[in-house]
Design goal:
By secondary structure, the chain is an alpha+beta fold. It contains 13 helices and 17 strands. The chain has a domain at 6-194 and 490-649: Rossmann fold (3-Layer(aba) Sandwich). The chain has helices at 47-57, 125-136, 155-158, 181-191, 196-228, 234-264, 274-330, 347-351, 379-426, 431-487, 492-508, 538-558, 579-594; strands at 6-15, 17-22, 26-32, 77-86, 89-96, 104-108, 121-123, 142-144, 150-152, 163-164, 517-519, 526-528, 531-532, 566-569, 613-618, 629-633, 642-643. The radius of gyration is 48 Å and the shape is flat. The two termini are 36 Å apart.
Length: 652
C-alpha cells in the first residue's frame, strides 16, 4: 500500500484580492524576487500567505478574527478554493475567508469554472479533520491525558509534520506543540515507530481510568452518607434491618393480639390507648412549657438586675471622670489671695507649707483638695466592667429570646395535641378500639423505620458492589498498563532507518562539523555529535530541523507510514539559516527532483510522474532550482494576493 499520497493541485482565492496557483507532483518553487535590488522587498510579498492558505483549506482552525493571518485584508478576500489529490482521487475544498467558523464545502473532482453552482457536502471545521484522515487512510487515534481524557491526534496537528510554517517550524521540531510529549506521540504515530496497538490500549486505559474515577467519587459519597447515619458497613446495615424487622414483628403481634381480644369480646389487657398517649404527650408538653416559662421569668429578673448594675457602673464612671477632672483643675490653681477674706497671701504664709502647715489656717496638712484619694477608681477598669456587664446582658437577652421562641413552639404543639384529642374524642368508641388505633400507629412507625433501614442496606450493598467494581477496575488498569508498557516499545528497525536517512541528509547538505547522529527511540528527537540538535546554535538549529523533516519525507517514500508523501517548506525568517547553509539546503532539495536514483524508494523512470510533492517558498534561488519556479512574487508590484486587474501580470 505504501504511505498515503497527498498532492496540492491548485490554490485559488477569489475576492478583491485574488491569486491562482497550480502545482504538479514533484518539486514546485514559489520565488520571492527582490525588486529594485531592495532585499526588504522579499518580506510580506506572500510566501507565508501561501502556507497559511494551504493550512486553512485543509481544516486549520481560526477562531479569533483579530489574530487571523489575513485580518488586515479580510474585507478584500472572499473564498478559498483548494484542489487536492488524495491517493489518486481529486477533491475540491471551498472555504470562506470572511466567515471563519462557516462550514467547508467539499466536492469530488478537480476545480472547474462554475463549480460553486454544483452541490457539495458541507463539513464543519471540527469534522474536516475526520474527513481528511479517512480520505488519506490514516486511523483516527487519541492519546490519554493525565486525567484519562482522550486527546485526539487531529489532522491539523499531524500536518505540522509535513507543513513547515515560518513561525512554527524553524525554532524546533514541531515547535509550540504542547505538551512536549505530544511531539513524540505525533512523530511516533506518523512514522509507525510507535505500534498502532499502543493507541488502542491508551484509549481502553483512558476509559478504565475515567470509570475508576467515577466509581471512586460514588464510593466516597455513599460511604460518607452511611457514616452520617451511623451505618459504616454492610454488616451493621444488615443487623439494623434485622432489628427493625424484629420490632415490626413485635408491633404486628401486639396488633393481632388486640384484634383477637376484640373479636372474642375480651379485655385487651392494655389500658393505654390512643387518647391516653395523646394526653400523656400533652402533659409532657405543658410541663416543658411551664419549665421554660419559669426559666424565662428568671431570665427577665436577671436582665433587670444587669440593667441596674450597668446603670450603676455608668454613674460610677461619670463620678470618677468628674473627680479626675476636678483634681486636674485644682492642681493648676495658684492662690494669690485668700478665697474667703480676700487678703493677699504673703511670703510668710507660704513658708508655712514648707513645714507641713496650711498657709491660710496654719493647721497641719494631712491632705489637700487637689490631691486625689488613694482609693479613686480608674476609668479604664470601670470601662472594662461596663463591657463585661453589657456582654452578659446581651447573652441574657438572647437566651430569653430563644426561650420565648421555644415556648411559642411548645404552645403551638400543645394546641395541636389538644385539637387532636378533641378530634379523637369525637370518634372515640371504646378503649379497645382506641388501643387498636394505637397499635396501628406502632406498626406504621415500625414499617417506616424498617423502610429507612432497608434504604441504608441498599446503599451499603451498592457500596459493596462499587468496592468490587473498584477492585476489578484497578486490576484491569494494572493489566492494561502492563500491556501498554509492552506495546509502547518503539520499532527499532524504523528508528534505525530514520537515523540513517537523517545522517545521509546532514552529510548531503554538508552540515558544519557533522560526525554522527542518533534518534532517541522514545522521544524521536535527534542528537547531532552527541548532543541534542537544539544545542547546535541558532542558525544550525533551523538547518537541523529542516533536515529532520526531509528525513521524515524520505522515510515516507521508503516505508509504509501514515505520513503523507508531501513536504511544504516555508521560507525561513532572516537569521534562521545563514546564506551558505541555506544554499546547500536548496541544492539538496533541487537534487531530489533531478536525481531519482539519489532517493531510494522512488520510481527510477525519469519520465514517470513523481509519487511525491515538495512545495517550497524561498527568497534565495540557486541555479539548480530555477527550472522548478512556478511563480515569482515581489513587493509591492507582484504580491501573491493582489488586485484582480493585476492578474494579467503574473507571468509564470
Amino acid at each position: 500500500m505504501g504511505s498515503p499520497k497527498l498532492t496540492i493541485r491548485r490554490v485559488l482565492v477569489k475576492g478583491s484580492y485574488s491569486c491562482d496557483l497550480s502545482f504538479d507532483s514533484g518539486l514546485s518553487v514559489v520565488y520571492a524576487e527582490k525588486s529594485h535590488k531592495d532585499p526588504r522587498s522579499t518580506n510580506r510579498c506572500g510566501k507565508t500567505s501561501l502556507i497559511e492558505l494551504i493550512q486553512y483549506g485543509l481544516g486549520r482552525r481560526s477562531d479569533d478574527r483579530k489574530k487571523f493571518y489575513f485580518a488586515p485584508i479580510l474585507n478584500k478576500l472572499q473564498t478559498l478554493w483548494l484542489e487536492v489529490e488524495i491517493n489518486g482521487a481529486s477533491l475540491t475544498i471551498e472555504r470562506s475567508l470572511s466567515e471563519l467558523s462557516a462550514k467547508l464545502g467539499v466536492r469530488e473532482g478537480p476545480y472547474v469554472p462554475g463549480i460553486e453552482k454544483s452541490p457539495s457536502e458541507m463539513v464543519s471545521v471540527e469534522d474536516m479533520s475526520d474527513l481528511m484522515l479517512a480520505s488519506l487512510g490514516i486511523p483516527k487515534v487519541a492519546v490519554k491525558t493525565a486525567k484519562g481524557d482522550p486527546s485526539p491526534l487531529t489532522f491539523p496537528s499531524l500536518m505540522r509534520a509535513f507543513i513547515l510554517h515560518q513561525e512554527d517550524s524553524f525554532g524546533a521540531i514541531l515547535d509550540k506543540i504542547i505538551p512536549d510529549r505530544r511531539r513524540s506521540d505525533i512523530l511516533g504515530f506518523l512514522t509507525r515507530v510507535t505500534p498502532l496497538e499502543r493507541f488502542t490500549l491508551e484509549d481502553k486505559l483512558g476509559e478504565v481510568q475515567r470509570k475508576l474515577q467515577q466509581a471512586e467519587v460514588g464510593y466516597t459519597a455513599i460511604q460518607a452518607f452511611l457514616v452520617r447515619h451511623g451505618v459504616p458497613s454492610l454488616l451493621e446495615a444488615s443487623e439494623l434491618v434485622a432489628a427493625r424487622k424484629a420490632a415490626l414483628g413485635q408491633a404486628k403481634d401486639v396488633q393481632r393480639s388486640v384484634q383477637r381480644h376484640i373479636a372474642a369480646g375480651e379485655p385487651t389487657g392494655a389500658p393505654e390507648g390512643q387518647l391516653d398517649r395523646l394526653r400523656q404527650e400533652l402533659l409532657v408538653t405543658k410541663r416543658d412549657a411551664a419549665q421554660i416559662e419559669a426559666s424565662g421569668a428568671a431570665l427577665k429578673q436577671e436582665e433587670a438586675r444587669l440593667e441596674e448594675l450597668l446603670a450603676s457602673i455608668s454613674v460610677d464612671r461619670q463620678r470618677a471622670q468628674r473627680l479626675q477632672s476636678s483634681s486636674v483643675v485644682l492642681s493648676t490653681v495658684d492662690f494669690g489671695i485668700c478665697p474667703r477674706c480676700l487678703n493677699e497671701i504673703g511670703s510668710e504664709m507660704r513658708a508655712r507649707e514648707s513645714h507641713g502647715r496650711c498657709c491660710l489656717c496654719n493647721r497641719p496638712i494631712s491632705t489637700t483638695s487637689d490631691t486625689p484619694p488613694r482609693g479613686q477608681p480608674k476609668t479604664a477598669d470601670i470601662d472594662q466592667q461596663v463591657q463585661e456587664a453589657q456582654a452578659i446582658l446581651d447573652d441574657t437577652r438572647q437566651e430569653r429570646q430563644r426561650s420565648e421562641r421555644h415556648l411559642q413552639v411548645l404552645h403551638a404543639h400543645a394546641n395541636e395535641i389538644g385539637q387532636e384529642i378533641e378530634t379523637q374524642s369525637r370518634v372515640y368508641v371504646t378503649p379497645a378500639v382506641d388501643r387498636l388505633l394505637a397499635t396501628s400507629q406502632d406498626v406504621a412507625s415500625a414499617e417506616a423505620e424498617l423502610a429507612g433501614a432497608q434504604g441504608l442496606l441498599r446503599q451499603a450493598e451498592a457500596l459493596e458492589a462499587i468496592s468490587r467494581e473498584l477492585d476489578a477496575l484497578r486490576q484491569e488498569q494494572a493489566q492494561l498498563q502492563d500491556q501498554l508498557k509492552e506495546a509502547a516499545k518503539p520499532h527499532r528497525a524504523v528508528t534505525d532507518e530514520l537515523r540513517q536517512i537523517y545522517g545521509a541528509v546532514l552529510r548531503a547538505i554538508d552540515f558544519p562539523g557533522f560526525r554522527d547522529c542518533s534518534v532517541n527511540p522514545y522521544t524521536l528527537m535527534p542528537n547531532i555529535n552527541g548532543q541534542l540538535y537544539i544545542h547546535t546554535g541558532t542558525a544550525l538549529k533551523g538547518l537541523a530541523t529542516v533536515a529532520y523533516h526531509l528525513a521524515l519525507f524520505e522515510l515516507a517514500q521508503r516505508r509504509e507510514t501514515f505520513l503523507p508523501r508531501i513536504l511544504i517548506i516555508d521560507s525561513p525568517a532572516v537569521g534562521d539559516l545563514n546564506d551558505i547553509n541555506h544554499d546547500r539546503l536548496l541544492r539538496y532539495i533541487a537534487n531530489l527532483a533531478t536525481t531519482p536514483s539519489a532517493s531510494p524508494g522512488r520510481d527510477p523512470d525519469p519520465d514517470a510522474e513523481p509519487g511525491w510533492q515538495i512545495i517550497l517558498t524561498t527568497r534565495r534561488l540557486v541555479p539548480e532550482l530555477r527550472q522548478f519556479v512556478v511563480e515569482t512574487i515581489s513587493s509591492p508590484d507582484r504580491m501573491l494576493l493582489r488586485e484582480r486587474s493585476m492578474d494579467s501580470d503574473k507571468g509564470r
